[in-house]
Design a protein that fits this description.
This protein has about 625 residues and is an alpha+beta fold. It has four domains: about 15-230, Heat Shock Protein 90; about 235-375, Ribosomal Protein S5, domain 2; about 405-500, Rossmann fold (3-Layer(aba) Sandwich), CATH 3.40.50.11260; about 500-625, Heat shock protein 90, C-terminal domain (Four Helix Bundle (Hemerythrin (Met), subunit A), Up-down Bundle), CATH 1.20.120.790. The protein is elongated.
């Protein structure tokens, strides 16, 4: 490549930018792009477009044929503080330099694309630029920009030079072959972009899959330089599925997801119709170590436009599918001028809908196939999928169809359909119990009456389980109800085994306990829900205790809601207390201990742990002060 540094030599003509360019340059440099490294993506994208244009023009004009091994070359020079990007593309004439660089939003790419309306799809080049603004991002990092270009099929080159301050110079130049050089004279605070490692990381991030080689000149330790191709250069998702091996899919998954496991499922398809796109998506085979600690709940699927990475913040699937990894690439998506923020467009909405529909269908198919692999997947990501039961009204019922749950039926997982198939003929309700962990749920006193009557209960131990049952409300006309709020239901079902012991006389005991506990409880009552425990806590007219604990842990302020203390009239302790009241003896100390015992059973914090310990010790020693 060769150039000129002669903006002030006689052959250079001085021109002013159009009014639009003058107004926009400051905006581009200071406001349009949030990340300065974007300049390199824009310039590489323009270079790729130029090579595509030349390839297309050569179909009808063989004299414009590309040279052998066309490429995009990047040369940093720390001594001169310059960064040069060169391509073997179509190039620009002197007039085209004025037209494309002196007037805002007059993108050569856009104008060229308009000529392709009647071209055959297989002959159309992949053009990325749409607005002609990307070039000006160079002024974010450069005090001066020089463009040397030679139009393919001509013998002359032209030079365009500007400091981005309202004017540019135009003159003749020398270039050995067709194409364009862009020389950036870097600002003092932008010299990081002269480091090879920094340039390599930017190219791998933004332009890894464009079809033309991006060659970076890197200086070695011995002072010599070496040219290396730094982009992958192939977009795996663009190849036919029949040409891709499982090992290649695995390698790409590990690359895009930064993972080491093997994918559980691979989805690769091309969507046609009003909106066309190609997707290559993966369900991970293992949960990433930091998955549940990530601050963001949003999907990170990579959005590409014509192979060029645009963003991983396009939210292509709902939050409850955020474990999905991969790439979606489209030619149809209009972008805003900075390409960093997507326009609110029906195209993107259609892509999101289609991608989500395909992923949900795959989830359903995998669930229907079942097996250990799906169970392993559900153990890794089921707690995330269940978020959809809460927040996704469109897919809520579908998620309910394939979701898996623990229950009192056995130690494995169950579906809601399987649960319904085991319901008693007269049962109209799906019962569930929410808690902090599965083992604590299995031992909960809340289950005793349900077990005694052969009623299956779902055991829900994930944080989201506290919320989705109310939002889902019902499944196949069967209403969800927490066992903690199903006191009256048990009376509808006969116990399958004979209850042990005679019930205590509760008429005097209950008023005595109410007097002793006062406002600490909302009510004290007898219950049939217990078979082995003496007491249990429940709520009435508000969220149950498990939900209250979760809300408190999340920092939400809750109004004081006293619980209901329920008593098992057949338990020896309750019978003994009833006898004590019959004899006219006090039970105030016992009442506080009963309430604390119920709190301990439910995992509730004790208001006075030391007082509880002292009272219990006195009782155990048989020294109760009546």
């Amino acid at each position: 490549m060769s150039g000129t540094d002669s903006a002030n030599t006689p052959q250079m003509e001085q021109h002013s930018f159009s009014a639009e360019v003058g107004q926009l340059l400051d905006l581009v440099v200071n406001s349009l792009y949030s990340d300065r490294e974007i300049f390199l993506r824009e310039l590489v994208a323009n270079a790729a477009d130029a090579i595509d244009k030349r390839r297309f023009e050569a179909l009808t004009t063989p004299a414009l044929a590309l040279p052998e091994n066309p490429s995009i070359r990047i040369v940093p020079d720390k001594k001169t503080k310059t960064l040069t990007l060169s391509d073997d593309g179509l190039g620009m004439s002197r007039e085209e330099l004025v037209e494309n660089l002196g007037t805002i939003a007059r993108s050569g790419t856009r104008a060229f694309g308009e000529k392709l309306t009647h071209a055959k799809p297989e002959e159309r080049p992949s053009l990325i630029g749409q607005f002609g603004v990307g070039f000006y991002s160079a002024f974010m990092v450069a005090d001066r920009v020089e463009v040397i270009s030679r139009k393919a099929g001509t013998d002359t080159a032209a030079s365009w030079v500007s400091e981005g301050k309202g004017a540019y110079a135009l003159g003749s130049a020398q270039r050995d072959h067709a194409g364009t050089d862009i020389i950036l004279y870097m600002k003092d605070d932008a010299t990081e972009f002269l480091d090879s490692w920094r340039l390599r990381s930017i190219i791998r991030k933004w332009a890894d899959h464009i079809s033309w080689p991006v060659i970076l000149r890197e200086e070695k330790e011995d002072g010599e330089s070496e040219d290396q191709t730094v982009n992958e250069g192939t977009a795996l998702w663009k190849r036919p599925k029949s040409d891709i091996t499982p090992e290649q899919y695995k390698e790409f998954y590990q690359h895009v997801a930064r993972a080491f496991d093997e994918p559980y499922t691979t989805l690769h398809w091309h969507a046609e119709g009003t909106t066309e796109f190609t997707a290559l998506l993966f369900f991970p085979g293992a949960r990433p170590m930091d998955f549940m600690e990530q601050s963001s709940r949003e999907s990170r699927i990579h959005l590409h436009v014509k192979r060029m990475f645009i963003t991983d913040e396009a939210h292509l699937v709902p939050n409850w599918l955020r474990f999905v990894q991969g790439v979606v690439d489209t030619d149809d998506l209009p972008l805003n001028v900075s390409r960093e923020m997507l326009q609110s467009t029906p195209v993107l909405a259609r892509i999101r809908k289609a991608v989500t529909r395909r992923v949900v269908t795959e989830l359903k198919n995998r669930a229907q196939a079942g097996g250990d692999e799906f169970i392993s997947f559900w153990e890794n990501f089921g707690l995330v999928v269940k978020e959809g039961l809460w927040e996704d009204s469109e897919h809520r019922q579908e998620i309910a169809e394939f979701a898996r749950f623990r229950s009192t039926h056995d130690d494995g997982f169950t579906t809601l359909d399987d649960y319904i198939s085991r319901m008693k003929p007269e049962q109209e309700t799906i019962y569930y119990l929410v808690g902090d962990n599965l083992e604590a749920l299995k031992a909960s006193a809340q289950l005793e009456g349900f077990r005694a009557r052969g009623l299956e209960v779902l055991l829900l131990s994930d944080a989201v389980d506290s919320f989705w049952p109310d939002r889902l409300h019902s499944y196949k006309d069967k209403i969800f109800r927490s066992v903690a709020q199903a006191h009256g239901d048990l009376e509808k079902f006969a116990a399958e085994s004979e209850e042990q012991g005679e019930p205590a006389e509760m008429d005097k005991l209950i008023p005595a306990l109410k007097d002793a506990l006062g406002e600490a409880v909302k009510d004290v009552r007898s219950t049939v829900r217990l078979t082995g425990s003496a007491v249990v806590l429940t709520t009435e007219g508000g969220p149950d205790l498990a939900i209250q604990r979760l809300m408190r842990r999340s920092g939400q302020e809750l109004p004081a809601t006293p619980p209901v203390l329920e008593l098992n009239p057949r338990h020896p302790l309750i019978r003994a207390l009833a006898d004590r009241v019959e004899k006219g003896e006090g039970v105030s100390e016992h009442a506080r201990i009963l309430l604390d015992l119920a709190r301990v059973q439910e995992g509730e914090p004790l208001p006075d742990p030391s007082g509880f310990a002292r009272s219990l010790a006195v009782l155990l020693a048989g020294k109760v002060d009546a």
